[in-house]
Amino acid sequence: MSVAKKEIKRITTHVLQAMKEQGERISMLTAYDYSMARILDDAGIDILLVGDSASNVMAGHETTLPITLEQMIYHAQSVIRAVERAFVVVDLPFGSYQGNSTKALNSAISIMKESGAHAVKLEGGAEIEDSVRRILSAGVPVMGHLGLTPQSIYKFGTYSVRAKEEAEAQKLKDDAKLLQEIGCFAVVLEKIPATLGKEVADSLHIPIIGIGAGNGVDGQVLVVHDVLGITKDFNPRFLRRYLNLYETIKDAVGLYITDVKSGGFPNEDEQY
Question: Which residue ranges does the chain devote to CATH 3.20.20.60?
Fold first, then answer.
């Protein structure tokens, strides 16, 4: 006897474009492991980003720079195994695409072949045009990332809001238009003035996803550890915490420790 399975409509680049055209906001969160990705996918998230922020929240590094391509592939493999609906994008890590379009293509192909991911994300505009074009020529969807680009943190010297000055704002608009023209399916804008975010989103036909880019863009992305309150020391203005899991988990573990030390766990019903 056959069992009817619930049909799940997968999110694709085509679906994301339709969402933009229909005015439906796009929801996006980071994911780095199977268990969390399964929960987020089941909740109905549209895009999961296997972000190089894993370098911070999973590995404890100060910046995103140390994480390697092999480590990103490992995280992406874990997420892909959990997902039935969400569109999965993977960050190309620092050093895997800048300044060498052949290396960029090889990095993207490695991620796609070894993880089964759906797209890659690169930071930068005109300076990485050759790399983006090369990756797109192989049929790999590319998401852009402009504004505050964490892989360039040592150049910026600060995590403050970007593109407040006219020249930098104009370059961001030019870069966003360029990324659209060469074939990127979406662009992330990070930590820029809300008015600029809206201007870019209104002027381009591809989806614009914001993180600290205001409410006038086509969707939002945050780091899941920040949203759920697993991290406690990161408190930017653009973050909204929906839970305080740090304290919830800490309290639960405290109860477990007490039960173990008192001999209360396991009880008669919890043993064979």
Answer: 13-241
Phi-psi region of 188 (alpha: psi -120 to 50; beta: other; left: phi over 0): beta
Residues forming the active site: 190
- Encoding tokens for residue 161? 């809001």
Q: In the predicted model, is pLDDT for residue 253 greater than 70?
A: yes
CATH of 13-241, one of 3.10.180.10, 3.40.1440.10, 3.40.50.1760, 3.20.20.60: 3.20.20.60
Run of H or E residues at 183:
none
Which pLDDT does position 223 carry in this prediction?
Answer: 97
How far is Cα 196 from Cα 164, in angstroms, rounded to an integer? Answer: 9
Q: Which of 240, 191, 194, 236 is nearest to 217 (CA)?
A: 194
| CA gap 137, 3 in Å, rounded | 41
| Pairing between β-strand 87-91 and β-strand 26-30 as defined by DSSP bridges | unpaired
> Which of these, 146, 180, 151, lies nearest to 162 by C-alpha position?
146
| Average pLDDT estimate for 75-103 | 96
Q: How confident is the model at residue 1, as a pLDDT?
A: 47
Give the ranges where the chain is alpha helix by DSSP (H): 13-22, 34-43, 54-57, 69-80, 101-115, 129-137, 153-156, 166-182, 194-203, 224-227, 245-262
Say if CB 146 and CB 172 are below 8 A apart: yes
pLDDT at site 252: 98
pLDDT tens for each residue of 119-136: 999 999 999 999 999 999
Sign of CA dihedral 55, 129, 120, 224: positive
Distance CA 176, CA 190 (A): 12
